[in-house]
Write a structure and sequence with these properties.
The chain is an alpha+beta fold and about 300 residues long. It has eight helices and eight strands. The N and C termini lie far apart (about 95 Å). The model is unreliable at about 1-10 (pLDDT under 50). Belongs to the MscS (TC 1.A.23) family.
Length: about 300
């Protein structure tokens, strides 16, 4: 990598200053005037390149913004992408102008930019990781605004997707900011991605109760609820012989926005119908049997 010898540059400047101060006044001004005339074409060329370059960069940035608006990319990315394009183009323009003015300084300038870029990237590596994660989230779109998701154990509705953070609001009205670097690596469960969901419930009845009757009661509650889908047909079957109860599984499809409404409706309605039909819902219990052995209790 090219290095910049500041001591040598300072000594050269000092020599020029000493030479100018030692010259007679007329000679000094003639010398400066000839140097200016030698430098003027490069200065004029640099100014023309700078003016044309600024106009070109502005046009490219404006054109990029219009193209991005027509694309399917998330609007959050538009300003970021345009800013990156403009910054890179202005840096390239600056290097070109400096190269025209002082060709020998171009290599040192590029090396300086490289060192500066490395130092900045090391200083803000965590922020860059979150920025990369935000771009990944916006490009892959595992969720959208308003979706109900679970990320790293946090459940809530997506309120905002920024480049560094994803913001969600929980059911109890807490706002959680999750770094996008973590979001990009996390397992994401999107509960509202599909228009329908399957509701799974399990009802317990006693071993002495008629399980066929219990199944008919559950099917009746499903049939009377307009939120429960008829296609696919709901499934109501015995699922387990539990320690203290017979378990009856109920699986029914429902529109995603109605998921929790149907969940609560079925729990309440089945309980009412079980009570009316004499079907018990047992609690966990343990039977203790005592046996008399050898004349002792």
């Amino acid at each position: 990598m090219e290095t910049i010898d500041t001591s040598s540059a300072a000594s050269e400047i000092q020599e020029v200053v000493n030479a100018l101060t030692s010259m007679p006044s007329d000679t000094r001004w003639n010398y400066l005037w000839h140097k200016f005339l030698d430098f003027a074409p490069r200065l004029l060329t640099a100014l023309i390149i700078l003016a044309a370059g600024i106009l070109l960069v502005r046009w490219i940035c404006s054109f990029s913004r219009k193209m991005l608006k027509r694309s399917k990319l998330d609007p959050t990315l538009h300003n970021f992408i345009v800013s990156i394009i403009c910054a890179v183009l202005y840096i390239v323009l600056g290097i070109i102008v400096v190269t025209v003015l002082a060709p020998s300084a171009a290599g040192s300038l590029i090396a300086l930019f490289g060192v500066f870029g490395l130092a900045v990237s090391l200083a803000v590596k965590d922020s860059l990781a979150n920025l990369a994660g935000g771009m990944s989230v916006l490009f892959t779109k595992p969720f959208a605004l308003g979706d109900y998701v679970r990320i790293n154990g946090n459940e809530g509705t997506i309120q905002e997707i920024r480049l560094n953070y994803t913001i969600l609001k929980t059911f109890d009205n807490k706002v959680v900011h999750i770094p996008n670097g973590d979001v990009a690596k996390a397992e994401i469960v999107n509960f509202t991605y599909e228009p329908t969901r399957r509701l799974d419930l399990v009802f317990s009845i006693g071993y002495g109760d008629d399980f066929e009757k219990a199944k008919r009661i559950i099917r009746g509650a499903l049939g009377d609820n307009p939120l429960a889908h008829r296609d696919p047909e709901p499934v109501v079957r015995m699922s387990e012989h539990g320690d203290s109860a017979i378990k009856i599984a109920c699986r029914v499809w429902v529109d995603t926005p109605d998921y929790w409404t149907l969940n609560f409706d079925l729990l309440e309605e089945v309980k009412r119908r079980f009570d009316a039909e004499g079907i018990s819902i047992p609690y966990n219990q343990m039977d203790v049997h005592l046996h008399r052995t050898g004349g002792q209790n």
